[in-house]
Amino acid sequence: MRWTADELKLAFYLYCQLPFGRLHKGNPDIIDLATRLGRTPSSIAMKLVNFASLDPAITNTGRKGLSGASKLDRVIWDQFQNDWQSLVDECSALLTTSEHAVPTAHPNIAEDPADYVGETREAQVRIRIRQSFFRKAVLASYKAKCCMSGLSEPRLLLASHIVPWSVDKANRLNPANGLCLSALHDRAFDQGLIALSDEFTVMVSDQLKTRADSFARSALVGIEGSEIVLPERFVPDGGLVRWHRENMFLG
């Protein structure tokens, strides 16, 4: 059965949110999408691996995925590389249409308070869906581990924006504008106490180095000069890393 453009968008949307090692037919998220689209889990898994064959972050490591990517696969891939918000908004809308809907609540979207109605509530839900996509895409790329400390407790991990959400609208949902960080390292990065060099090594502000706080010296100063663990996909954009260092790092 030929894939439609909408089906491919949903497959690519899912691809971005799953670790490469989980692109298999037994994955519950793949089974869920197969149910929505009336396809087999195997066909969904194969399509996700087709997308992997177009992903330079995967192919540059020697992994090839499947070679059966279609022309339309490439169109979908190219369409959203610089327009992540459209991908999220279009796919979240598709997942709520009668054609693709299933009788369960949208995942990861908590109920809003009763006083949110109409456009206000819709805007809040849309923001939550966008934030959920960004978090899933970033954490999946880093295998749910802090790239600086190695912490893997999901309740203490954040999908941190390199350039803040409020500053760069175009890159709000770009996974290459994200780092998987522990809550501590996220806060330090956000406050400009740590930054990254062009080689993705950790830089530490002198304001931390001069403090006598033993925990800060161990957890933050102690990692100065170490390389972060790079993600398997969506490597941090060098221009965004440079912007953070030049505009937020306290030096």
What labels would you give this structure?
single chain; 251 residues; two-stranded antiparallel sheet; 4 strands
Q: Could you please describe the fold and organization of this structure?
A:
With 251 residues, the protein is mostly helical. It has 11 helices and 4 strands; from the N terminus they run αααααααββαββααα. Strands 1-2 form a two-stranded antiparallel ribbon. A two-stranded antiparallel sheet has the order 3-4. α1 runs antiparallel to α2 and α2 crosses α3. The radius of gyration is 20 Å and the shape is elongated. The relative contact order is 0.11.
**Low-pLDDT runs:** 101-116
Helix content: 40-55%
Shape by Cα distribution: elongated
Determine the number of helices (DSSP H or I, runs of at least 4 residues).
11
Main sheet: strand order: 1-2
- How would you spell out the order of helices and strands? HHHHHHHEEHEEHHH
The span between the termini is 57 Å
What's the number of extended β-strand segments? 4
* Average pLDDT score: 88
Main beta sheet: strand number and arrangement? 2 strands, antiparallel
Tell me the radius of gyration: 20 Å
* Main structural class: mainly alpha
Strand content: 5-15%
